[in-house]
Amino acid sequence: MLIRSPSDLRYSEVTPKPLYMDRRRFLAAGSAALAALAPPSSLRADTTLGPLAKSPFSTTEKLTPLNIVTGFNNYYEFGTDKFDPAKNATKFVTHPWTVSLEGEIAKPKTLDIDAIMKLAPLEERIYRHRCVEGWSIVVPWIGFSLSTLLKQVEPTSKAKYVAFQSDLDRKQMPLATAFQAGIEFPYLEGLRLDEAMHPLTLLCVGLYGEVLPNQNGAPLRLVIPWKYGFKSIKSIVRIRFTEKQPPTAWNRAVPSDYGFYCNVNPDVARHRDQSKEQRIGVDKGNQTPTRLFNGYGDQVANLYAGLDLRKNY
User: Fold this and answer.
1) 179, 172 in Cβ contact below 8 A?
2) Can you give the pTM of this predicted structure?
3) The CATH number of domain 6-304, selected from 3.40.1390.20, 3.90.420.10, 3.90.226.10, 3.40.50.300
């Protein structure tokens, strides 16, 4: 078995996700008994990212089972039911892939995914996550701090925010309609520049030792552990530095519930009570108190000193 390290592995050399997913389905169909005994998604040499450094930012909490992380997703471009993305995104083409960096920067550029993966050593970060629907998960993501990429283009003094845009390919994403999903496309997100530059903000290319599955945002997504999960935008194609606060998908759709910040705050109810959460796949129905900033307050509370967290939700 040959396992390539990230430093000598180009993203274009990784077996396309649809091909190996098709192979898995074929093997599962012919070997049902073995599949029942095997892990939900066995690691294979052609999809593995490693060896990986273990990040000091990681939590030691129990991991959410892989089959839940890859089978229970919000990705409205591929359907609004939690199980739709795993079914509908299998043939989504994620290479070649480029990301445009533009706006208030000294060095605008477009980078392909291979170049982005070479910017820094990949590391594993085990983050906890909280969804506005009341459930939470713990995932071993793979990537490096977003700041590594952003520093490449040298933001100017006018850059106060960073706006992100997801891919929108209507031939591959026929379900990406406002009527179907209740939000406008392409999917937009945004952060203040200091939030984007914070070392916890992860530019993610994989999970559980593998390249990202399509339904989890391949080939490139954000992971922002102190904010609600929908802020961690998937399948990024555009990053723009702006002087003014950019629009975001859910804030445009339901501004009364979804503010620009969307930090995890148990005291802001939104459309449902946020004071409790359930760790899916682990808690067996038990609920635990939600922590401010999802428990990452020691690292990020200073970003919001003097800010009214009820008003700026």
Assistant:
1) no
2) 0.86
3) 3.90.420.10
